[in-house]
Amino acid sequence: MSIEGMYQEVILDHHRNPVGKGLREPFAAQAHHINTSCGDELTVRVALDAAGESITDISWDGQGCAISMASMSILAESATAGSVAAERELHAKFLELMHGRGEVSADPALGEAVAFGGVAQFPARVKCALLGWMAAADALDQATSQR
Amino acid sequence: MTVAWTAQGIREDFPILGRTMRSGAPLVYLDSAATSQKPLQVLHAERDFYERHNAAAHRGSHQLAEEATEAFEVARSTIAAFVGAAASQTVFTRSATDSLNMVAHAFAAATMLHARGREQDSRFVLGEGDSIVVTEAEHHANLVPWQELAAKTGAELRWVGVDPDGRIRTEDLASLVDARTKVISCAHVSNVLGGTLDIAAFAAAARAVGALFILDACQSVPHLPVRLPDTGADLAVFSAHKMLGPTGLGVLWGRDEVLAAMPVVDTGGSMISHVTMQESTYLPAPAKFEPGVPSMAQAVGTAAAADYLTSLGMPSVHAHVSALAARAADALAQLPGVRVQAAPDAPPVSAVSFTVDGVHPHDIGQVLDDDGIAVRVGHHCAWPLMRALGVPATVRASFSVYNTESEVDALLVSVERARRFFT
Ligand SMILES: Cc1ncc(COP(=O)(O)O)c(C=O)c1O
């Protein structure tokens, strides 16, 4: 796995021009996650529609490596305006990909997130790719359980 | 200083340095501050102990037990002599972290025993109004145990700050230390900033108020000629695995009188002098702090590491390693967008930390890894220091006896490659 294979163009693009960055109101719940091994941190806010079934906004802020920032950005782009159920399905697929040590082929439903398949070959970096996804799942769980 | 050996010439002693990494690039190991590589002499010493002399030291009277005891105690003398100390002052622990925890727990134990009316040396008894002073640059191993001790005893934790440019505000000692300061603890050499602290100032501040001065010598003992009794410290700690020795062994050094006054923490076999069902009495140091069958092979391996370093000569080791660190720091500072995170007045002993504008240290580390270069990225177990420097993390290259100038040059090329890739 070359460095270009790990940092694919989509990852670098999202890293340079992150989607959804900057915390916004209103939001139903937020979660702050820290990668304890490197100190990177992210806060993620989710807003839901009146029925609590669709995600109307994901906003986030934080600092971290290109992998963690890009994966957060891709999540924000793909999950906003989708249903809560669809985001949970996507989340499960992403977890499977990232824990697959590069031996799991990415589900095309993941969209741009398939680009992280290369990162899955580097156990030390898997946590970076998951940081935002774990925070978002946490915020989503809080938002839906409050209802 | 002329060095009578070359890094190139001793690299054969470290078989791991002959490895290639997943990209096919040869290994460039620049992470010795985390743990050093081990020469064959150390591996052979451990193996020889297991093959020929293995038995439980300080137990039994058969010949092998005698030989194991002898090997273990000779190792202790060798390691003690390496830091200018006596064997009686040299306690084996599991690691430097373990040594620091042991000291912090000893203060807690003395405080509890004192509260129950048992006579204790007042230097080890803490309470409200007392203070513990550290620095903002400490490794978590020399910070968190003191936070816990403060919480248990009501003592206050204070710290000498670090300026955004990496300078340690040693002058703050004057306002932080008072008559009720019981502990002052600091690193000899910072594992992030890389420079030497003004430990004479810390020692003087402690002496002036009768506080105990504890020195974290993890990053100095591997690279500098250090005579612990001359540092002004009352207690000092270091780890074998950072000085070419095996994992699993730490040292707690103490002045005789301080070790005699310090209460035991861990208890059990081989540290007692007499046991009844009601109570026990303990052997003098170092035995009183070493319950259980000790780490014999590790001690023998560490003595071989000390012999190895002694044969290179510690002044030469220092000259070689600090020259590599200075070469790296100077050249890195010349690269566009690169900031060396070090105090202006404290030249690096071995470790050089840096950041690259607009590029996260993890991403730099990944490109370096792709070039076979092993560096540490992250907060280096010194999270508060990262905040003081105003950075989320740093990249750290650290050098040892086996590193060469061409490895420094490889680092520079790779850092520039990383910067171009991400910006
Ligand atoms: C300055 C300093 N103190 C303490 C430690 C802890 O040493 P160990 O992990 O061997 O217990 C380290 C190791 O990283 C260190 O660099």
Structure characterization notes:
- The complex is a heterodimer of chains A (147) and B (423).
- The longest helix of chain A has 23 residues, at 123-145.
- Chain A is globular and about 45 Å long.
- Chain A starts with a helix and ends with a helix.
- Chain A has one domain (3-145): Sufe protein. Chain: A (Alpha-Beta Complex), CATH 3.90.1010.
- Chain A is of the alpha+beta class and 147 residues long.
- Chain A is built from five helices and three strands, in the order ααβββααα.
- Chain B has 423 residues and is an alpha/beta fold.
- Chain B folds into two domains: 7-35 and 314-422, Aspartate Aminotransferase, domain 1, CATH 3.90.1150; 47-310, Aspartate Aminotransferase, domain 2.
- Helix content of chain B is 38%, strand content 15%.
- Chain B has 13 helices and 15 strands.
- In chain B, the strands form four sheets. In chain B, strands 2-8-7-6-5-3-4 form a seven-stranded mixed β-sheet, sandwiched between helices.
- The longest helix of chain B is centred in the C-terminal third of the chain and has 21 residues, at 314-334.
- Chain B is globular.
- Chains A and B meet through loops of A and α11 of B.
- The structure holds pyridoxal-5'-phosphate.
Name the CATH superfamily assignment of the largest domain in chain B.
Type I PLP-dependent aspartate aminotransferase-like (Major domain)
Query: Can you tell me the CATH architecture of chain A?
Result: Alpha-Beta Complex
Oligomer: heterodimer
Basic shape of chain B: globular
Radius of gyration of chain B, whole Å: 22 Å
Detail the topology: elements first, then pairings.
The complex is a heterodimer of chains A (147) and B (423).
Chain A: H1 3-6, H2 9-16, E1 29-34, E2 41-48, E3 55-63, H3 66-79, H4 84-98, H5 123-145
Antiparallel strand pairs in A: 1-2, 2-3
Chain B: H1 7-10, E1 28-29, H2 40-53, H3 63-82, E2 90-93, H4 96-115, E3 131-135, H5 144-153, E4 156-160, H6 173-176, E5 181-187, H7 199-209, E6 212-216, E7 235-239, E8 250-254, H8 256-261, E9 272-275, E10 280-282, H9 296-312, H10 314-334, E11 338-340, E12 351-356, H11 361-370, E13 373-374, E14 376-378, H12 383-389, E15 394-398, H13 405-422
Parallel strand pairs in B: 1-13, 3-4, 3-5, 5-6, 6-7
Antiparallel strand pairs in B: 2-8, 7-8, 9-10, 11-12, 12-15, 14-15
Helix pairs in contact in B: 2-9, 3-9, 4-5, 10-13, 11-13
